Ribonuclease R
Amino acid sequence: MPTRDDILTFINENPDRAGKRDIAKAFNLKGDNRIFLKDMLRDLADEGLIEKRAKRLARKGALPHVAVLDITGREAGGGLIARPAEWEATGEKAPEVLIRPSRGATGPAPGIGDRVLAKIFPSPEKTGPAYTARIMKRLEHRSDAVLGVLRRTSDGEWRIEPVERRQAELVVDSGQLNEAKPGDLVEVEITRAGRHGLAHASVRQIVGSIDSEKALSMIAIHAHEIPHIFPEEVLREAEEAKPATMAHREDWRSLPLVTIDPADAKDYDDAVFAEPDSDPSNPGGHIVTVAIADVAAYVLPGSALDREALKRGNSVYFPDRVVPMLPERISNDLCSLKELVDRPALAVRMIFTAEGRKRSHSFHRVMMRSAARLAYPQAQAAIDGAPDDKTGPILDAVLKPLWDAYATLRRGRNEREPLELDLPEKKILLTPEGKVDKVVIPPRLDAHKLIEEFMIQANVAAAETLERKRQSLIFRTHDAPSMAKQESLREFLRTLDISLAKGAQLKPGQFNQILKRVEGSDHQDLVNQVVLRSQSQAAYSPDNIGHFGLNLSRYAHFTSPIRRYADLIVHRALIGALGFGPGGITPDEEARLEEIAALISATERRAMVAERDTVDRLIAHHLATQIDSEFQGRISGVTKSGLFVALATYGADGFIPISTLGNEYYLYDEANHALAGERSGKGYRLGDIVDVKLIEALPIAGSLRFEMVSEPRPMPASMRSHHKSSRAMRGGRGKPSGIPRAKRRGRS
């Protein structure tokens, strides 16, 4: 039998084949010995020594099998050294990775400053970098570009104030300004740097005036290196594209499919239709049809359009602009399911029972014609008894059957029990000048839920069809919470006298029971936030592990190929597997699915961070004139350094350093997401509603700093006893066991 160290060593040395079956096969474990292995792996996970990643196991904190790396230098022997471009282990330095020479590589050799996608392996050497890597793909990366604001000092010197606060200022010689003016947001490149003094730079590009809110999204675009200008070759391909013909298509133009989208939508990539099932064997059942724009008809594998779409990975949505994955000629014209216009589509026809269970489905490549373009509020108003000139004529024939079908699907959803977090999404509304007007929470209508559930079922059907055809694809995966996160959540819920069952096979329904228990209570927002933080991050992968949040065993993104590359891959896979004509997946794409999945997972995370950063900058810019004003907010994060507070009106986060909280020692209680005073037992906890004063607003950095106005509150008895136990263990002095301690100065 293998020992714990044997298993840990195997997982460490074989990251690409470290699933349970692989481990059992490596140690020749059969029968009851497999149960022994399962128990040992659970124990190792409980102790935080390993964690599950997709179908593989990995050492806690280890780099993933495929990662994006930045090449930062060379080792003594001349080999390239890299570090992960994304590193989430706060407080720890990102590990070094030694780049192995790639076999049969073509093109320019990678060098310092390059960004690459690589396969990661633990190093066999006991000294030097902990990992080695083999490059899969060289990525575009502006390693020498700095984004900042041009300023002029009192003595006439030109300086660049970088957007990244960690970067030092730069000097610009007057001959290197390239017509930039004070207050301009510019991109510069470093031209001269010595051991002493500030580095010198020249202006490469003027992005815009920092006094304009519209420049703030450009900061995120540049800082996160989001491609936003289409190359001429890509635009030319888009303009030369011809409308699709009826070849290889069924004629569905008489079917009254309708699009239902946000009122301000610019493109329409999904249309829906529903009707009762006339089959006597399916009483009360419905037939639901979902048609999706056939982007694969225009974006062919290996084309310039395709290469650019993969590089972008997805569209990025800012309050003032959209950075699309595809040129407007494709996204807003040829592929947009416009009202009363012939458009090519991939459609799925699904039959559901009266209980909302899917009986069967079939895919079709069609030519359709949208009967109506509707907005969510417009469609909802018609169902609620207030139809207009457009919805009135189609109310009985189209809209009411859609809502009847949704009622059926909702029964199936309720039985499935996906995770039901109550986290309203805020939307920033801008004035025509691009300034923040207000922040609203759009109403959550049944029209939204209808489209969402129809799209989920279409995505499931796509994954099921491709699996049945044994066709490789990219799944949308969401792993169950790790054992460490489960235990942390369990400890927190215990302070609220709520129990969470132990074991690795938690279901979303168990989380829903907890959320229902606190519904309407003072703890509702707090528990929703903590449950959200316990969840794993969704990703794309050619390996199917299911989708925990939706409680689905197979799931793929199929319904938004205009704005997500993953959906385009699934469309191509369906076209190829079902013999739908040209535009199918190629053998080269099938061989690169792991690489493609890693790339688009990275671009999705990049978009999320860029969108969040822009919102933070917009709010900081808006509040810069309101220093010393007081606001109400909710504590959205607790760290050993202080508190993050989200403003109730704006949703943006600001920080309160722990050094400003009061005249006593504050203890950081990670399990309870709280800071508590050592003497008083009073403190602040995640989810608390508090009043704060704005002390500083930095639009360029997108940061707000607050001062706490609300007095601390008594902590739960279970937390106070935990603190007393910690003090007793250290005799009232030194550092408490498991809880960081820091001396805090009084409020200035």
